[in-house]
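Proteins fold reproducibly. Look at a concrete instance:
___
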Amino acid sequence: MKQTIWISYDLGLKGDYPGLYRWLDLHKAKECGNSIAYLSFSYVSDLMEDLRKDLKENVELKSGDRIYLIASHKDEGKMLPQGRFLFGNRKASPWEGAAPVEDNSADI
């Protein structure tokens, strides 16, 4: 099967970007902004597992590296986007605390 996907990647300062860029080029990925790529991926049985395996075989991933997958899935006949980390986890957002907070409490 073949599916179009987006991946977002953050390999830190010393990540294997040459390996990742080679992998992206082999899959004819399109650049979509800083650290985001769009590509078509062929898989046999399970998109996430096959993609995870293919990336592990081609990119030297270390602790702290993050790759996030965005793909469509069918839900009640509709194609809906879904995202999940292939490697790594969510961390605190750099914008957290940037918005003003309204304080309606009395100072007495």
In short: The chain has a mean pLDDT of 92. The radius of gyration is 18 Å. The beta strands are 2-10, 30-31, 36-42, 66-75, 78-87. Residues 92 and 98 are 13 Å apart (CA to CA).
